[in-house]
Amino acid sequence: MKNxxxxxxxxxxxxxxxxxxLLLLCAGLLDGNDPLxxxxxEAIEETGYAVKSPxxxxxxxxxxxxxxxxxxxxxAEYEPRMKIGSGGGIADEGEDIEIVELPVAxxxxxxxxxxIADGKTIMxxxxxxxxxxxxxxxxxxxxxxxx
Length: 147
Description:
Blueprint: E1 6-7, E2 10-13, E3 21-24, H1 35-47, E4 52-61, E5 70-77, E6 97-99, E7 102-103, H2 104-112, H3 119-130, H4 140-146
Antiparallel strand pairs: 1-7, 2-3, 2-6, 4-5
């Protein structure tokens, strides 16, 4: 996460019948790596950034009654000098990722109106605001009225 005003989600084309484009934070499979190594690898592949001082903030099961996959959630700082690649994902894996940087207020509004519908992204965004990592925008209380 860059600062108290923005986060770095990306838009990912997903292989569905409608080729839905989703906004989501950087994520990926462990592929035999430990969670920290996988997070660092995915950050470089998807965003082009070699993040510094990543910190694991929580683990969660998305649907423990039907899926056994445990998700590992990290936060990390980044700045322009940490850009070491173009990002965008790996084309051979079907990834076509556009980096999108949003103000926190916009990202929260997008979760309220359904434009951000990825559970992982919503959970980490809410954690970042509730923990104080990202500043809660003054307009957040108005979001509840429209939802």
